[in-house]
Amino acid sequence: MEWVSVKKRLPKRGETVLVASREYRCRRLSVTASTFHGDTDPHAIFWPDDGEPLSNPVAWMPLPAPPTEDK
Rounded to two decimals, what is the model's pTM? Predict the structure, then answer.
Protein backbone atom coordinates (compact mmCIF):
# COMPACT_ATOMS: atom_id res chain seq x y z
CA MET A 1 0.00 0.00 0.00
CA GLU A 2 1.15 3.51 -0.70
CA TRP A 3 0.76 6.87 1.01
CA VAL A 4 -1.88 9.20 -0.44
CA SER A 5 -1.52 12.98 -0.12
CA VAL A 6 -4.51 14.67 1.53
CA LYS A 7 -4.30 17.23 -1.29
CA LYS A 8 -5.05 14.47 -3.83
CA ARG A 9 -7.83 12.58 -2.03
CA LEU A 10 -9.39 12.25 1.40
CA PRO A 11 -10.38 8.89 2.86
CA LYS A 12 -14.02 7.88 2.80
CA ARG A 13 -16.27 7.55 5.82
CA GLY A 14 -15.75 4.19 7.53
CA GLU A 15 -12.36 3.60 5.93
CA THR A 16 -9.60 2.39 8.25
CA VAL A 17 -6.42 4.35 7.57
CA LEU A 18 -2.96 5.11 8.88
CA VAL A 19 -2.54 8.90 9.03
CA ALA A 20 0.76 10.80 9.06
CA SER A 21 0.85 14.28 10.59
CA ARG A 22 3.19 17.18 9.85
CA GLU A 23 5.22 16.10 12.88
CA TYR A 24 5.77 12.68 11.25
CA ARG A 25 3.59 10.93 13.82
CA CYS A 26 1.38 8.14 12.58
CA ARG A 27 -2.01 7.09 13.93
CA ARG A 28 -4.39 4.31 12.91
CA LEU A 29 -8.02 5.36 12.84
CA SER A 30 -11.42 4.59 11.42
CA VAL A 31 -12.72 7.74 9.71
CA THR A 32 -16.18 9.05 10.58
CA ALA A 33 -15.69 12.21 8.48
CA SER A 34 -12.96 14.08 6.63
CA THR A 35 -12.99 17.64 5.32
CA PHE A 36 -10.66 20.01 3.51
CA HIS A 37 -10.72 23.68 4.60
CA GLY A 38 -9.16 26.94 3.52
CA ASP A 39 -8.41 28.82 0.33
CA THR A 40 -5.04 30.40 1.11
CA ASP A 41 -3.69 27.77 3.51
CA PRO A 42 -5.69 24.58 2.89
CA HIS A 43 -5.59 21.82 5.47
CA ALA A 44 -7.46 18.63 6.12
CA ILE A 45 -9.24 17.52 9.29
CA PHE A 46 -10.13 13.89 10.00
CA TRP A 47 -12.71 12.88 12.60
CA PRO A 48 -11.88 9.42 13.92
CA ASP A 49 -14.39 7.24 15.74
CA ASP A 50 -12.96 8.25 19.14
CA GLY A 51 -14.23 11.81 18.57
CA GLU A 52 -10.85 13.58 18.81
CA PRO A 53 -10.29 15.53 15.56
CA LEU A 54 -6.91 15.15 13.89
CA SER A 55 -5.84 18.41 12.19
CA ASN A 56 -3.28 18.94 9.46
CA PRO A 57 -2.48 15.41 8.37
CA VAL A 58 -0.23 15.34 5.31
CA ALA A 59 -0.84 11.82 4.03
CA TRP A 60 -2.79 8.64 4.73
CA MET A 61 -2.63 4.99 3.77
CA PRO A 62 -5.60 2.61 3.51
CA LEU A 63 -5.45 -0.34 5.90
CA PRO A 64 -7.48 -3.52 6.16
CA ALA A 65 -10.46 -3.13 8.46
CA PRO A 66 -9.88 -4.43 11.99
CA PRO A 67 -11.24 -7.93 12.59
CA THR A 68 -14.72 -8.15 14.05
CA GLU A 69 -15.74 -10.53 16.78
CA ASP A 70 -18.47 -12.98 15.88
CA LYS A 71 -20.97 -13.26 18.71
Answer: 0.69
